[in-house]
Write a structure and sequence with these properties.
Helices cover 97% and strands 0% of the residues. The chain starts with a helix and ends with a helix. The longest helix has 106 residues, at 3-108. The radius of gyration is 46 Å and the shape is rod-shaped. By secondary structure, it is mainly alpha-helical.
Length: 109
Amino acid sequence: MSHHATHIVADVASRGMMAFSALEHAVADFRLQAAERRRNDIYAVADLATALQESRAVEGYAVEAASALHDENRELRAAISALTAALRGERQAHAQTQAAFAEICAAIA
């Protein structure tokens, strides 16, 4: 093989090695990026799981508070009903007192 042919073969081999090396680096870079995306996705899922747990805890507190307010509302309605009945009785007693007073005034006059 002549010197010129040897030089061409060496040049082609060198360029082939450079292309293969660039391809190896590109594949390695792609794998690193894919691993980073997977890791970021795992972190995102973990963050969502934490947020879900926190929201479930808040939801539990909200349900407890709503239940307590419902019970308090029921108690207040019962108290209002009792006070309304008492007021009705007081009005009747007042009306009877006025009628009795009117009778006394009529008897005196």
